[in-house]
Design brief:
By secondary structure, the chain is an alpha+beta fold. The chain is built from nine helices and 14 strands. It starts with a helix and ends with a strand.
Length: 319
């Protein structure tokens, strides 16, 4: 009888272990499903789960917090790498191959954030062919917004309108201009004049090529925001006072800096085309210096005006 009791006890222990093992498997499967569910949520949705404590079990809230912390760590590692890369470019230890040398020098003139943003989204150009322009724009905007928020250079557009002093007349489709004394800040809607523009295209052309040609009116990238029109860059530019040049004077000036060809507001050579060179965008200072404010430059490719330039796949190499 004792032996039988022993056997019964042994069997009971076995069944208990089996049940425990099954419960462990079920718990693990449940945890996997919860983690998968949470991994598919945005940061904002995870914050909502944490706030609505009454509607979610404690372990879901716990793993929501864990998921957010994991993402934060991953982002910090990624952005630390971007910062290190950009620092190497600015210090001359690394070099970006994307634009001709003069234009590429304008990327650094655009400031640390301009180089960091380039490093962040530039490599995406390697797979441009797998995306439509619309998809690529959305992807780059998302990357830049996440980065800007992490780096604390994301501006609330409501706060901008409340606290910054706007000085333009509101007629520009591209930019809102705000007074900051010796410089202005511009909220720049990067695709306002060309819906096929991507954020990377804006950084390449409107910031970097511009800075390489016209460093006196350099753009410095300081952050980003979102208006009712969509994603926008926040740029700083020196405040310029002067008198407008005539069309003839603009033509003479552009020829003097190496742009012999022109048609209306367009001027070009074999490397670069500069558009929107109307009289409001070109001023002469008191000392005779010519300032070009908001031109629209781009590379002159063989498909454009039979130029000799091309946008290279974004690459960073050690010097």
């Amino acid at each position: 009888m004792e032996r039988n009791n022993g056997i019964l006890m042994d069997n009971a222990e076995k069944r208990k272990k089996q049940r425990t093992g099954q419960e462990d498997v079920q718990d693990n499967e449940r945890l996997k499903r919860v983690k998968q569910f949470l991994s598919e949520k945005t940061d904002e949705e995870l914050f909502q789960i944490i706030k609505q404590k009454n509607e979610y079990q404690e372990f879901v809230i716990y793993h929501s917090i864990q998921e957010l912390n994991k993402r934060k760590d991953e982002r910090e590692r990624r952005y630390s790498s971007i910062r290190a890369e950009a620092k190497g470019v600015i210090q001359g230890r690394k070099r970006i191959f994307r634009l001709p040398e003069q234009a590429e020098s304008g990327r650094k003139i655009g400031g640390t954030r301009n180089v960091e943003a380039s490093c962040l989204i530039g490599r995406q150009n390697k797979t441009d062919k797998t995306y439509s322009t619309r998809e690529l724009k959305t992807l780059q905007e998302q990357k830049l917004e996440e980065w800007a928020k992490h780096e604390k250079i994301w501006f609330s557009h409501d706060d901008i309108r409340k606290t910054w002093q706007r000085i333009d007349d509101g007629s520009s489709a591209e930019a809102e201009v705000y007074d900051f004394g010796s410089y202005v800040r511009k909220v720049f809607h990067y695709d306002a004049i060309d819906n096929n523009y991507t954020p990377m295209g804006f950084i390449d052309n409107r910031i970097s090529i511009h800075n390489g040609l016209f460093p006196e009116t350099k753009y410095e990238l300081v952050g980003a925001t979102k208006t009712y029109k969509g994603f926008a860059f926040v740029l700083e530019q020196p405040y310029i006072e002067g008198i407008q040049l005539t069309e003839g004077e603009i033509e003479t000036f552009m020829e003097s800096i190496g742009f012999p060809n022109h048609a209306g507001i367009y001027h070009w050579n074999n490397i670069i085309i500069v558009g929107d060179m109307h009289t409001k965008n070109v001023l002469k200072g008191k000392d005779g210096t010519v300032f070009v404010i908001d031109p629209v430059p781009r590379l002159n490719t063989p498909d454009d005006m039979c130029g000799k330039s091309k946008y290279l796949p974004f690459k960073i190499v050690d010097v």
